[in-house]
């Protein structure tokens, strides 16, 4: 039986007595970190230079950091509401500020997107790894402690502990320990908000060396709110939804595009005619034969490293219903808003049994039980985001050409590899056609880039808001032509010229007229009927923002866009100075503390927000 603790400092002392002063500690990715245990070990090592502490992790979660007056006033109450009781990880600020003690090292294989750019200590200690290789890398470094947040249940008078949100690497290293190929102490911290997930991660107390449980160390789970889905992301999600076959297998990534895809599948299932209409408006030149638009009679089976609230929506709608050994959804870790965790906690035993948390080696690889996996993963669609793509079909998903890491490879390569290994499977990489870099608009489709995550010889399907490009088995010239059709029209001519200068595209090639109208305005027009009909809500799976905050969000997006252009900002300011806010606008201004401005800056922001609110209603 494990030793039980209510004091994390006492537990840290016990770990040091048991393991020694050279601690190599594995922290589960994302939500599953035992924050109090980690902070106690960090504090103990920080006070004793003879203790060497190596923290091996991924996806360190941190509360949002607002910038600027308006962002600060908008997001601070949201942070307090959603993250107020969440204990910060002490190592994160120290790492960012360059003040980690020399005897403490933090190594990660996946970053929260963009959070650790230009932080030398984080960048220098990053391990580039496929998700499925992470467990092996931890063990090779001498892993001797694993700390994990767990859910607890008492069965027949005996405690049982669920790895819940993070079976991903923990089950893989436990398998190695049971086989005698690893030796480490598994330490649990009980959290009352974690759903108890059945399956392989439901462990007896004997698996653990120590358990921390106390009302003082219980805390609200990290719960990032869902973000509103933009027109571009909805267009991408709808285009991708037209690639999913009934009776097939689905994997999707995190974020607004994943939510948009799921809502697109729900629309398709409930009203296939409306779905076909909106997809056709988005891509009028795309042959109908290339679209999947029917309802899901057989249904889908889900196998995804990450579970999101969107999957629950697909289960509730009757889309995710093709069971494999009684399970409709296999996953390796989860993260989401509070409503997602609550939905999992409140499921009946029969409902929750249809969702099984597995090691990442199960979800992301075919090795091991390969015949069974092949039979289950029919017509698979592995749909993931990428940042940029080249005209020749390479994907840039995790880093920049100067070596700076934005996020990590994670499971993307794993799923691309599966797409080529499985009969009928496809890898679908999604991206917005453009991005803002300061005041400049840049294309996310490039001729070449100095870093690649997925090489061009593994090119398959790409999706932007402007359509779908099927690249598998195509020649370079045909690939370039297909990618040009996905690019924003403001960049098409220059991209085509560079490809022609390189001798990879015929000099006489002309981009078809049907793809010459790739502009955001066309996408907004194509989506408007479905938007107005309520078929494409901004928050399809629930929202943690108040009604006033939901009215503010599009207005603040307009203000943010205007700040890139002095002329647009001046015009917005002038409009705001000339108008008198109505009652609904005043509620929004009160929320930002601009109802009674006291400074010239506040007066200016009041006018800007007032005008932006008016524009957002007119859109």
Annotate the secondary structure layout.
Elements (H helix, E strand, L loop, with lengths): L2 E3 L2 H12 L2 E5 L8 H12 L5 E6 L11 H15 L6 H7 L7 E5 L11 H5 L9 H7 L4 E11 L2 E5 L7 H9 L6 E6 L11 E3 L5 E3 L18 H11 L7 E4 L3 H15 L1 H11 L18 E7 L1 H8 L12 E6 L3 H8 L3 H4 L2 E3 L2 H4 L6 H7 L3 E6 L2 E3 L4 E2 L15 H10 L4 E5 L3 E4 L2 E4 L1 E2 L14 E4 L2 E4 L5 H9 L4 H13 L18 H13 L14 H16 L3 H13 L4 H9 L8 H19 L1
Parallel strand pairs: 1-9, 2-3, 2-5, 3-4, 5-7, 7-9, 10-11, 10-14, 11-12, 12-13, 14-17, 15-20, 17-21
Antiparallel strand pairs: 5-6, 6-8, 15-16, 18-19, 21-22
Helix pairs in contact: 1-2, 8-9, 8-19, 9-10, 9-11, 10-19, 20-22, 20-23, 21-23
Derived from helix and strand composition plus strand pairing, the structural class reads: alpha/beta
Give average pLDDT, whole number.
95
Low-pLDDT segments, ≥5 res: none
Silhouette: globular
User: How many β-strands, per DSSP?
Assistant: 22
Helix fraction bin: 25-40%
What distance separates the N and C termini? 62 Å
Q: How would you characterize the largest beta sheet?
A: 9 strands, mixed
- Into which percentage range does the β-strand content fall? 15-25%
* Cα radius of gyration in angstroms: 25 Å
Number of discrete helical segments: 23
């Amino acid at each position: 039986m494990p030793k039980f603790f209510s004091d994390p400092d006492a537990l840290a002392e016990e770990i040091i007595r048991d393991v020694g002063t050279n601690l190599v500690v594995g922290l589960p990715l994302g939500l599953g970190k035992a924050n109090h245990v980690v902070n106690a070990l960090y504090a103990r090592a920080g006070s004793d230079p003879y203790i060497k502490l190596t923290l091996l992790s991924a996806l360190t979660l941190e509360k949002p950091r607002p910038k600027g007056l308006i962002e600060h006033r908008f997001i601070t109450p949201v942070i307090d509401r959603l993250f107020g009781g969440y204990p910060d990880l002490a190592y994160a600020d120290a790492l960012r500020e360059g003040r980690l003690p020399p005897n403490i090292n933090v190594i990660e294989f996946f970053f929260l997107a963009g959070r650790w750019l230009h932080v030398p200590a984080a960048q220098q200690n990053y391990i580039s790894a496929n998700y499925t290789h992470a467990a092996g890398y931890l063990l090779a470094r001498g892993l001797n402690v694993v700390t994990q947040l767990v859910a607890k249940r008492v069965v027949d008078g005996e405690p049982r502990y669920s790895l819940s949100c993070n079976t991903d690497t923990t089950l893989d290293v436990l398998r190695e320990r049971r086989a005698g190929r690893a030796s480490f102490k598994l330490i649990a911290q009980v959290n009352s908000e974690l759903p108890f997930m059945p399956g392989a991660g439901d462990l007896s107390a004997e698996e653990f060396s120590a358990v921390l449980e106390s009302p003082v160390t219980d805390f609200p789970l990290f719960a990032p709110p869902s973000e509103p889905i933009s027109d571009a992301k909805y267009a991408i999600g709808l285009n991708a939804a037209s690639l999913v076959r009934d009776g097939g297998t689905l994997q999707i990534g995190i974020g607004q595009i994943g939510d948009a895809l799921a809502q697109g599948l729900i629309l398709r299932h409930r009203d296939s005619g409306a779905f076909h209409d909106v997809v056709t408006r988005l891509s009028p030149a795309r042959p109908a034969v290339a679209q999947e638009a029917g309802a899901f009679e057989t249904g889908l089976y889900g196998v995804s490293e990450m579970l999101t609230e969107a999957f629950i929506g697909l289960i509730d709608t009757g889309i995710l219903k093709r069971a494999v050994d009684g399970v409709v959804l296999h996953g390796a870790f989860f993260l989401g808003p509070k409503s997602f965790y609550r939905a999992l906690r409140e499921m009946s035993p029969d409902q929750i049994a249809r969702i099984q948390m597995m090691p990442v080696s199960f979800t992301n690889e075919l090795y091991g039980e390969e015949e069974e996996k092949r039979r289950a993963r029919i017509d698979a669609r592995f749909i993931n985001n990428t940042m940029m793509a080249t005209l020749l079909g390479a994907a840039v998903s995790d880093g920049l050409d100067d070596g700076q890491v934005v996020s990590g490879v994670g499971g993307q390569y794993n799923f691309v590899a599966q797409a080529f290994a499985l009969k009928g499977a496809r890898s679908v990489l999604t991206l917005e056609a453009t991005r803002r870099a300061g005041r400049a608009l840049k294309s996310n489709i490039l001729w070449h880039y100095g870093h690649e995550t997925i090489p061009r010889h593994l090119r398959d399907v790409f999706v932007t808001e402007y359509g779908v490009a099927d690249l598998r088995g195509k020649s370079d010239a045909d690939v370039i032509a297909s990618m040009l059709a996905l690019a924003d029209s403001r960049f098409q001519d220059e991209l085509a010229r560079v490809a022609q200068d390189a001798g990879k595209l015929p000099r006489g090639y002309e981009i078809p007229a049907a793809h010459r109208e790739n502009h955001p305005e066309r996408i907004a027009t194509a989506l408007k009927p479905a938007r107005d009909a309520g078929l494409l809500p901004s928050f399809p799976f629930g929202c943690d923002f108040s009604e006033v905050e939901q009215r503010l969000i599009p207005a603040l997006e307009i203000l943010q866009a205007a700040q890139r252009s002095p002329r647009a900002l001046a015009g917005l300011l002038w409009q705001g100075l000339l108008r008198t806010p109505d009652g609904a606008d005043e509620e929004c201004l009160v929320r930002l503390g601009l109802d009674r401005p006291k400074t010239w800056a506040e007066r200016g922001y009041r006018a800007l927000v007032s005008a932006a609110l008016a524009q957002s209603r007119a859109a």
